[in-house]
Description:
Shape: elongated
Structural class: mainly alpha
Largest sheet: 2 strands, antiparallel
Distance between the termini: 41 Å
Strand content: 5-15%
Number of domains: 2
Order of helices and strands: HHHHHEE
Helix content: 55-70%
Radius of gyration: 22 Å
Amino acid sequence: MSCGDHHETDCSEVLAEVWLLLDHECDEARDAQLRRHLDECGPCLARYGLEEKVKTLLSRSCSGEHAPAGLHQRLREQIRATVLEQAQVSVERSPAGTVVEVNHTRVESWKS
């Protein structure tokens, strides 16, 4: 998205980082840069306001509720399996021990 005006930071960049801004996960310099853009760009400010309202609604709707006890463990196991699959690593457990096989060779070059 672009409002058509020239800005120091492109509208698409700002909108891609709107949740980082809302969650206070930007460093001070980036936070200031994104807020400068919002001060001068009405369409992005409107989108930021909408996302802020969504975040507030989610927080209000979900506060105090906790996920079922087993959900945390199942999510960790699924994330681990996905990471291992993407890295092409297989892990087999048996009474004799654990066998880890790496099916992908990573080559890195270092420059001094």
